[in-house]
Amino acid sequence: MINARIGLVGEDLLCEVLPLGGHSARRRLDAAALERLTGWASTYDGAVRKDEPGPLLAIGRDIAVFLNGDDAWLDRALDGVGEFGLEIAVPANPAAAVEKRAAAALLEVPWELLAPGGLYLALDEARLFRVARRLGTDPDPAPPAHGDLTLLFMAAEVEGQGQLAYEREEAAILTATATLDRLHLVVEESGGVDGLRDRLAETAGADALHVTAHGSIGKDGPFLALEDAEGGLDVVGVGRLCAALGEQDKQPRLVVLSACRTAEGVGAAGSYTQALVRAGVANALGWDGSVYDEEATGFAADLYGELAAGRSVPYAAAAARRGMLKAHMADPQQGRHWHLARVWLGPRGGGALCDAGRPKRKRPGAAATKAFLDKANGRVPVATPEQFVGRRRPLQRALRALGGRA
User: Fold this and answer.
1) Rounded to two decimals, what is the model's pTM?
2) Fewer Cβ neighbours under 10 Å: the N or C end of the chain?
3) 63-68: long-range contacts at Cβ-Cβ below 8 A with a sequence spacing of 24 or more?
């Protein structure tokens, strides 16, 4: 395996092959170099917003030329054998203004497009190309504690907004992991941040949280369009979601925001996923732009199939990305947004979420008895959680009706 890291040393870009002692190179981040980096990001953003893939390969080729420099650093790195992992690591809170500008520019570059010689590394079927952005320069990935994976899934679909294919996404995840007995899927039906907070407290030890919703960027920054108790719009910024996640050592180790623009940078504040990592989430994944439901569904299925098999977060995302790109190469109308998924890591991120060599957790069995409202006669049974699935809309309409009474 080839592990490459790009980081900052003062006003220089340091390109390394790890472990330390591998060949390294420096690139001076003067005004011209910074303009080059920000130019890639700007051209990329324009192409993404217009959904025009034309400039993408040229950007990837130009990034490779820059990394190669006069000393052929990239070519020498790629001469090794095994997977090629590229990590962009910057200080969590750069102190100097020049370092802040350089860090922001590095993080916004679409490294996923890297294409030495005009060939996307992401398309290599023999050697997986992993990309991750890390906040913190001293990584110490936490090892998995269990042999199985608990995934908490929540979808929000605000009434009156465009519908999401979240049921198909949930079904795709289950199908992709059907042959693996190491995935335990828990569904939160509320679609709201309060319900999510309560379910996280009940599902102690959830390894991953998957939120499917509409996402966008407003005047106060990026947000998720979640539901209030009556099914209306509840604009949820990073702070409220972090509050729902609770204490850092009890949070899911991976938060996936299957929502548009959740990895899109917003000035100095960065993206929603970047803010989650800065707040303490070990691994976060989002989309750097708008993505089709069908593509997000396929990506999620591949991602959790790999994670449940014990792969690391960057590996799982890279495998899902390659699947999308292969589909796009076979049919240009498929997988158009293969390059948009972004993996963000904190100091404890980057590892696997489960390990087949570790024991599985004991799962609570189904309740042996039913609960009844009239305990004495046992004639009015209380609906089970499974019986509430799919009834969110009728419940919300009932709450609205009750709320309108004097």
Assistant:
1) 0.89
2) C
3) 63/109, 63/110, 63/111, 63/113, 63/114, 63/115, 64/114, 64/115, 64/116, 64/117, 66/27, 66/33, 66/36, 67/6, 67/15, 67/27, 67/114, 68/116
